[in-house]
Amino acid sequence: MNYRLDAGVVKRVQSIMGQKHSIEQTLELFTVDPSDGVVILAGRALGGLHTPPFPPSMPALLTDLSDGMLADLQTVLGQVYPQTFEVLAAFTGPDGQLARKSLCLDELSAQHALDALLVPALGADTSLEAFQE
């Protein structure tokens, strides 16, 4: 897959991620087409919040993750998503390549060295924005 993203957006997200892999590689790994809509946030943006700052009807890519914030992310996401909800994690494999794995939200706090997390859309009519339409 080839994505043509605005260079300013890619540059901004790469600096947020602070890691080896570009946002383009991460979206490709998760087979997400950015033209379909995806929220991209640094994981630290969820720190101290009670609920996620994005609509659950859209997928969200959380970047710039640290092991210490994963339990907090699990708590914040758990306010909207069920603990059995499947998310996708990106990590750097032993060969230095970006790899992915699926895990349930309730497994998030036990993970280590994740580069990014994709939270898929919960459903089409699950957000306030969808209700307002």
Structure keywords:
133 residues, alpha+beta, Methyltransferase, Cobalt-precorrin-4 Transmethylase, Domain 2, 5 strands
Protein described:
With 133 residues, this protein is an alpha+beta fold. It has a single domain (7-132), classed as Methyltransferase, Cobalt-precorrin-4 Transmethylase, Domain 2. It is built from four helices and five strands, in the order H-H-E-E-H-E-E-E-H. The chain has helices at 7-17, 23-29, 70-77, 128-132, and strands at 39-42, 60-63, 86-92, 98-104, 114-119. A five-stranded mixed beta sheet has the order 1-2-5-3-4. The longest helix has 11 residues, at 7-17. The radius of gyration is 14 Å and the shape is globular. The N and C termini lie far apart (32 Å). The model is unreliable at 1-19 (pLDDT under 50).
